[in-house]
Amino acid sequence: MSGQPEPPRRIHRAALLVVLMLLGVLWLAFTIPDRARINGQSLIALAVVIVIAAVGGIGFSWRRYFRRR
């Protein structure tokens, strides 16, 4: 990069993405019909899906905003 500070729009989009991911997980936690059925495997599967989504989002953003011209 050219050493210039990052535009606020990029930081805003990243912060909004994190907030939406957290809201989605909270919504899921509050709408689960039978919380007694949640075990370690369910939580691991949820974490894997969240990590894959985050990596995909970062990869997409990286290609879109930081590719060399």
Describe this structure in words.
The chain has 69 residues and is mostly helical. The chain has one domain. It is built from two helices and no strands. The longest helix has 26 residues. 0% of the residues are buried.
What is the strand and helix layout of this fold?
Blueprint: H1 8-31, H2 40-65
Short recap of the structure:
The chain is an all-alpha fold and 69 residues long.
Short descriptors:
2 helices, 72% helix, elongated, 69 residues, mainly alpha
Strand content: under 5%
Annotation field: number of helices: 2
Instruction: Give the oligomeric state of the chains in this entry, treating copies of one chain as homo and distinct chains as hetero.
Output: single chain
Main beta sheet strand tally, sense and closure = none
Number of separate strands? 0
Helix proportion = over 70%
Order of helices and strands: HH
Supply Rg: 17 Å
What's the N-to-C terminus distance?
Answer: 11 Å
Structural class call reads mainly alpha
Taking pLDDT < 50 over at least 5 consecutive residues as the criterion, the unreliable ranges are: none
Number of domains: 1
Q: State mean pLDDT (0 to 100 scale).
A: 77
Choose one word for the global shape: elongated
